[in-house]
Specification:
- This protein folds into two domains: 111 residues, Methuselah ectodomain, domain 2; 171 residues, Rhopdopsin 7-helix transmembrane proteins, CATH 1.20.1070.
- Helices cover 44% and strands 16% of the residues.
- The protein has a five-stranded mixed β-sheet with strand order 3-2-11-12-7, with no helix packed on it. A five-stranded mixed β-sheet has the order 5-4-8-9-10, with no helix packed on it.
- It starts with 8 loop residues before the first strand and ends in a 5-residue tail after the last helix.
Amino acid sequence: MEFCEGVTCIRKCCPLGEAYDMTNYRCVPVDLINKWTPEFYNKDTYAKEIVKEYKIIVGFPLNCDFTSLSPNNDPPDFFQLLSNGSLYVKNWHLSLSSSKYCLDNFIYEESVMVEAMVCFPQPKAEGSSMCHNVGQKLYPSLLLISSIFLIITLTVYAIIPDLHSKIQGKCLITSILSLLASYISLATVQLWSQTLSSGWCIAFGFLIQFSVLSAFFWLNVMSYDIWRTLRSMKSGRDSPAGARKRFLYYSLYAWGCPFLIVIVTVIMQFLPKYLDRSNLILPRIGEYGCIVTREEFVFLFYGKKEY
């Protein structure tokens, strides 16, 4: 994670040493001539200024719909990178924080131009800003509180042999582990999404998808096991070897299926972005947020309509 406390932070669209290829819609390595270097301007006078220490965060703007600004092609798109790390968009009379923009060289067929990807300014309804700010802190806080109780439950089941020796207890422990991983990851993303680098954002996206799916698959396993236990009460209990074998099958199902789904997501994540313009659906984690948030993708990658 990269934090921006006490230091000027700027956001670069592509990793260091790369620029954005507008022909193939992806980041590509570039030589020193086409390497992007930031030019800063004073936040009060808007005159050019030298900033010796700054931190670069890599990735597109998070948690917003964004558009491109190309002042070379469209003069009203004029912008300046200010010495405090914010981006001043003259036509909007607005300064955007480093989480709301990214800058880079954009490679066209015959030219290379510095452009910005910026979040659309959101109209502020009365009271909505306060509710949004409270929600941004409240939801992850509740997730962390829930995680504490999950840890307590996990500890109790781990300490008492009668609880974790049975197959139902083992299934519950694995389900709790999945929920715990998903809650902590979600809280981390919600609290620090603005300071996460693109790589960490994508990694958390995959972890959240795997842990959430695993939690639901283990719930499915526990439901089936309860049904199976009630159905076979008259025939007697499984032997220890039979119980271990059954738990192995459960694990292959509840861990394996989410793993296969995440592998498909990883493959589709790193396909060329121009394919997204066709009928192929791409997750694009790390561009709109650290999780799959676009509605048509949520159904495919999480198995439900809203997340």
